[in-house]
From TrEMBL, chains A, B, C, D:
SUPFAM superfamilies: GlcG-like
Organism: Marinobacterium lacunae
Protein's UniProt name: GlcG protein
InterPro entries given in the database record: GlcG_carb_metab_protein (IPR052517), PduO/GlcC-like (IPR005624), PduO/GlcC-like_sf (IPR038084)
PANTHER family, per the entry: SLR1406 PROTEIN
Gene3D superfamilies (UniProt xref): Haem-degrading domain (3.30.450.150)
Pfam families cross-referenced by the UniProt entry: HbpS-like
Amino acid sequence: MSMLLLSRASAIVDAALAEGRANNLAPLAVAVLDAGGHLVAYKREDGAGILRFDIAFGKAWGSIGMGFGSRELATRAKDLPTFFSMLATASGGRLVASPGGVLIRDDSGEVVGAVGISGDLGDNDERCAIVGIEAAGFHAERLPA
Amino acid sequence: MSMLLLSRASAIVDAALAEGRANNLAPLAVAVLDAGGHLVAYKREDGAGILRFDIAFGKAWGSIGMGFGSRELATRAKDLPTFFSMLATASGGRLVASPGGVLIRDDSGEVVGAVGISGDLGDNDERCAIVGIEAAGFHAERLPA
Amino acid sequence: MSMLLLSRASAIVDAALAEGRANNLAPLAVAVLDAGGHLVAYKREDGAGILRFDIAFGKAWGSIGMGFGSRELATRAKDLPTFFSMLATASGGRLVASPGGVLIRDDSGEVVGAVGISGDLGDNDERCAIVGIEAAGFHAERLPA
Amino acid sequence: MSMLLLSRASAIVDAALAEGRANNLAPLAVAVLDAGGHLVAYKREDGAGILRFDIAFGKAWGSIGMGFGSRELATRAKDLPTFFSMLATASGGRLVASPGGVLIRDDSGEVVGAVGISGDLGDNDERCAIVGIEAAGFHAERLPA
């Protein structure tokens, strides 16, 4: 797999936060993980609650863990609530199924990591993640609406 | 952020318990946490069950973690049960979504901590929390009914 | 077993803290647990670190868990370090072997709970625990020096 | 206590990493936590191992938890190995006793958070932490050599 360099992970974080500020969103927490599910870069805006790290991380980790973004995780969790609760437990609390976690793909289509954002509505968190990924020259997985 | 001193945290606990006794409520457990989610003061009345600490703590911690009281947590959990189960797991069991957890704000509106109470009905637990917060000279977050 | 009432648990906490203040000790955290190992009363003085709750709790819980105070736990842990590390793990992190955890006995000699204190040197923490227990009319287990 | 803003936490991370690059250190992971022990900003340099986040976080968290830097934690752990193993367990793995965790104090001397760095020798990690803290206009706790 190609590597997610810190320089580009940081670019994702900063572009995502700029998008949040441009739209007056609530304070955001933005986590960027590599393809192994390990944290590369993180920023928490002033005023964001103390659970925001775990949620942002969990959206990204769950996306990598299952191979699709956390919007799809949320859709499937609605149909299979007990199974997804078990996944959350099986992962040691590292999977959170709610929009805002988006896979990062390189030009060849390979997954190089994921972004997870928490703080505002899931739809807004997700838009910031996509903006950040594309600003850094990667491709955000867009699922059919 | 301003600091939650022990003297005022203790005043919250004692006023909340006095309110409970004045209304003949079931035995209560009252936990006061600082803005970082750490326990400052706690009392458990005689006869309260052994899970009451975890519930009281979790109502307060969840309020700080998400940035609003546990009544609102409970409302959202009703619509998004699986997501909130995942938050409970992601937080290591420190989030309990049921009325009785109330944010403590100072005169400038900043969150300085939270109170969590368990033992009676959630509405009664919450009222004691609000009475305690106001008796100590702080402001309880009141959400629209 | 006889019950550890909140009124007396609170008396232990307050007397222990008064002893600490009278001797200009570092900020203390004082936890009082019942015979089932559950928290009854807790106060953390201003400025005490965020790990102090876990340490104070763990000294008290470990004392009840093994049936003797945490000074004796520390002595045995020195001879059997791996075993005691395993006990810490087996208890889910609820056992801390260092002076400052003292069993609370009633007039008949029965264990009704334990006090755990953290913040200053273990010897000082322990003295405050003993003062608190005796001020509340209980008996602190004194081990031969 | 005063708040650790993201802007200043990020300044600490970037200055610490610049110091590491200027000295050709091994790839570093740098975590900045607020006074409640929660992550505010984090960067992991390319090539740093997957345990580096937990080590960097644990050096910072342990410093806040006990109220002094992780160099002092390491010194004490040498004398009290079993006790410190228990603290690691009691904290849920959030305490790592090795140089590289340094308290961040503001002009009034209050602790506003901590930096934890991992990747090179502990002495080098620590120097980068101190450089980062001072570059951001805060005061690093310097213990007597």
